[in-house]
Amino acid sequence: MTDCNFGQIEFQGLGHRKVVAAFDGGDVTSDAGGLLLREVVRGSRIIDRFAGCFADHRDPKLVEYPVRDLLAQRVIGLCLGYEDLNDHDRLRGDPLFCALVERISRAGDATLAGKSTLNRLELTREDATSESRYKKIVYDGARIERLFVDVFIESQGRTRPKEIWLDLDATDDPIHGDQEGKHFHGYYDEHCFLPLYIFSEGSLLSARLRTSDCDPMEGVLSDVSRIVERLRAKWPGIRVVVRGDSGFCRENLMSWCEATKVDYVLGLAKNPRLEKLIRKDLKRAKRKFKKTGRAARRFRNLKYRTLATWSHKRRVVAKAEYLPDGANPRFVVTSIEKSEAGARRLYEDLYCARGNMENRIKEQQMGLFADRTSSHTLRANQLRLWFSSIAYVLMHELRRIGLRRTELASAQAWTIREKLFKIGAVVTISYRRIRLALASGYPWRETFVACLRNLKRHYVAAAPA
Fold first, then answer.
1. Whole-Å CA distances, 391 to 45, 74, 82, 148, 394
2. Phi and psi (nearest 5°) for 403?
3. Which of 205, 230, 422, 438 maximizes the CB count within 10 A of its CB?
4. What pTM, to 2 d.p., does this model score?
5. Domain 142-367: assigned CATH number
6. CATH 3.90.350.10 residue ranges in the chain?
């Protein structure tokens, strides 16, 4: 074999044929399917509206990269799998990536911002002005928070939902450096942040970065009340149900829900008093398990009040379960009446449905890099979390609209990226058009075309007359 060089590379032969390669293919992209994402970006205008949440104090005469382009570059990069700022020093010259950010000129010579410019966007102080030296683009956190709720409301179209479930959950975001707010969390056995998420089914309504030494309820009541107020401003009197695990089972949240006529379904940590109330049910479940060899469970309604923290008795649903590992009692406190949902239905159908939210959090953290919070300041890391959150909103929009009734209708972000975005293509740029010669052997072409058709039909129908 010959030595590798940038002229021609030779590999092991195949039969009597040589196998050679060279870096002379011209403009080739591996992200041709990102054009589907561009349809969502243009049709939904989510990134344009995200840009409206920033104040740009730079001199307009000296601006080469508008805020909208910087945000599009960062968010679209996350959707395509490029989580690091360093990636953008290569991506800035990719003709297709430039087109996704709307930066291709007629001559085809426009480029995007480099990592240093994108980094300055993240590191701008809250009090930056036009007199600041380098970092002058300031985000308005309250406007960004409102944007997520507004996008959710608009996703409902002209229909009025019968009810809206708000799922609350927190997760660990490991810290490996010396970031502001670094703290060791005993439960997760690591230094981490503890971001709070609020979803409604697959839609993200809030993503708040918190330090791990905070009270688990920090920000919960303010975020929930803000969201409920906005929902009821749009749909007066609509039923809202708050759902979460036992970390959110607090008197202040439950009493607020009761006062504002918001229902709740919350996990309740087990204790000796609760277990005593279902002792007979656990014994019966144990007998059934020993008889059948399979998990046995019984459900029961209780009226329960804590000794000191609750203001009154509330309905508690108990699950008396016996597994091969032994007894597994579980409890849920709720404001929903027995006449609407019996004990089994409330636990298995209503409470356990919150597991879908855990999948959505995993999708955002693992698929859209919400855990890349390695900036020094908490403010910068909050912005990084919102970059990932906007990327999630775009991907969910693509899934909800474009992939409806296709094989990928419930696919997660990394599957969509692998099957729809990562398509090899030769890019040819002329005066009149940008043409992509897509790989002929691409196996998901029917789904790809169906997705594009669905997106076009939706955004044409949604366009104002």
1. 13, 9, 12, 12, 5
2. -100, 10
3. 205
4. 0.92
5. 3.90.350.10
6. 142-367
